[in-house]
Amino acid sequence: MFRVGFGFDAHPFEEGKPLILAGVRVDFPKGLRGHSDGDVVLHSITDALLSAIGEQDIGQLFPDTDPRWKNADSAIFLKTALEKLHQKGYRIVNVDCTLVANQPKIAPIKERLIENLAKLLGVEREQVSLKGKRREGFCQEEGIACFCVVLVQRY
After folding, report:
1. pLDDT attached to residue 72
2. Which GO terms describe its biological process (predicted)?
3. 128 φ, ψ to 5°?
4. 86 assigned binding-site residue
């Protein structure tokens, strides 16, 4: 049995925070505003995985009103989603993400992000796709949005 999950996350830029994308610290003068580390890639993948297996979403499992998650590493959220995925007898077939941002440019860091995602997800590099697109009028505030779709299969 195959299941598809979709995830989305977006955060505006914030001065004084590091920029974390796909679990990688990116050299950029601003980070993303969020209760946790603001990693839109890991947040959208986490939501997509949870969606695919019919679980509560990231906001329900890790509410931004809970001080435990203040500045938390988003890999914690992803790890929880992966545990739930495996407990229900599913494995990842593939993950496909699109980052929407004018800056930073994604192309120069794309392979680093994909390699780290594959490592975090416990899959082969070929099972992960990530691309960058410019905003071109989408979103009024400067920041980064990420759309993600996953395909999972019962084993």
Report:
1. 93
2. isopentenyl diphosphate biosynthetic process, methylerythritol 4-phosphate pathway; terpenoid biosynthetic process
3. -120, 130
4. no
Residue numbers of the chain with a pLDDT score lower than 70: 138-140
10 is in an annotated binding site: yes
Is 58 marked as a binding-site residue?
yes
> What is the domain range of residue 125?
2-154
Say whether 35 counts as a known binding-site residue. yes
Strand 2-15 relative to strand 19-21: parallel, antiparallel, unpaired? Answer: unpaired
Is 101 labelled a binding residue? no
| Residue 129 assigned to a binding site | no
| CATH classification at residue 60 | 3.30.1330.50
What domain count does the chain have? 1
pTM over the 0.85 mark: yes
At position 113, the amino acid (one-letter code) is: L
Place of tokens 């007898």: 89
H helix intervals, 29-109: 40-52, 58-61, 75-87
97-116 tens-digit pLDDT: 999 999 999 999 999 999 99
Left (φ > 0), alpha (ψ -120 to 50) or beta: where does 44 sit?
Answer: alpha
